[in-house]
Amino acid sequence: MRHVHKLVAGELTRQQVVDIARGGTAVELDPDTERAVEATRRHIDALAAAEEPTYGVSTGFGALAVRHIPAERRTALQQSFVRSHAAGAGPAVEAEVVRSLMLLRLRTISTGHTGARLSTARALAAALNAGIVPVVHEHGSLGCSGDLAPLAAVALALTGEGHVLAPDGTTRPAADALADAGIEPVVLAEKEGLSLTNGTDGMLGMLVLALHDLAELLEIADLTAAMSVEALLGTDRVFATDLHALRPHPGQARSADRIHRLLAGSEIVASHRGPGCTRVQDAYSLRCAPQVHGSAADAVAFAETVADRELAAAIDNPVVLDDGRVESNGNFHGAPLAHALDYLAIPLADVASMAERRTDRMLDVARSHGLPAFLADDPGVDSGHMIAHYTQAGVVAELKRLAAPASVDSIPTSAMQEDHVSMGWAAARKLRRALDGLRTVLAVELLTAARALDLRAPLAPAPGTAAARDLLRTRVPGPGPDAHLAPQIAETEALLRSGAVNTTVQDHLGG
């Protein structure tokens, strides 16, 4: 049976956003929430009938707000609004991003502060549940006045215009998709053009999805770091709890604890422990992994706070207050989201940079402490992981470029009415690309470290790292003559994306 989430007065958790955007969980409005939406709409209807103009109800929009629109032209006003604002360009963004922004706009409507009609909210929920994914283009949002062009594309599809994505990636007319789902096209009433578009839902949706993915990838980074420490005959003493208590960052403490437990019981680590070991300190990329990984985890914790606050917000302009007042405001400005999105890209690039350094050490015969050059089966005839490292290095370089903030830029628009914008949509788009890059970087380190551990036989790795290596071996073969590496990297990325590696490691660590 398909799971259904009851949307109550805008309440939604980050995990529910992920489940609905990616997993197809259905959503419907709670009856009390529906009554609240209807009560708010009555305020808008009263303002629409009044002689005094109200922005967004009986006026034009943006720099055109000075014009009072007569009642007989307001349906045309709303349709013209979404048609003109659905002005995106470039390739279509991912279906999960579109589903997240549809859900989050529905969530805001359910707070009862937008003035949209209940019938419109139900139509949006029905489209989401039917798997209708409007075509939303890469370019069109400046992250201020909300994600206007992306949300307008969704609103336009609800009215039966524009195109939607079919499951096979092709496009079809929105009117056909609505008809197949038994959904009547929406005829927009006063205020609804703004209610459906004036939100930060695209930025927030991408932040929530990114937080989910980055949290998982940071756990993978702890694993690959542990495997590399082991493969390079490093020490586990630097991950001791009392050492990290001297610098009480929570992310650092958790990362050190995970690496320490992953190395527990390693024959490889034990083989060079004691007074006979002449190595005093490991390289920074091994010794300082918890400091870098932990800082990234703390950045995630900060961004989660931002996301949770946004999930408790009602973003619209104008907004309907509890006493029935309709007030203009600036809550649609995407700065809080843009800053968090940009912030995450920086530690993400640093985690990847450190992983690349560990990979390079395992391939360098001068620094790998007995491993063959490039982990090749027959160095000279075989090249081993030499070019896999090139790929990894190229991705790391790209991640450093993606770490440059988008939110420090602003281009005035709308005849200088919108004279400062957040560029939060751009920050979100580059963070999604950066997450894909980090996954590739960690996949190459996992491949390399697993091969290096195999080459340390007959010494056995720790049970935790061995479990991850053994899982990898169900998809990628162990050491041998050169093979086509691109499919192996792709298989490893898919394994990381599946969550199976995290589950295996977490089960081994005891939850």
UniProtKB/TrEMBL annotation:
It is an enzyme of class 4 (lyase). It comes from the Bacteria. It is found in: Cytoplasm. Pathway: Amino-acid degradation; L-histidine degradation into L-glutamate; N-formimidoyl-L-glutamate from L-histidine: step 1/3. SUPFAM superfamilies: L-aspartase-like (SSF48557). It catalyses: L-histidine = trans-urocanate + NH4(+). Keywords: Histidine metabolism, Lyase. NCBIfam families: hutH, PRK09367.1. This is Histidine ammonia-lyase. The gene is hutH.
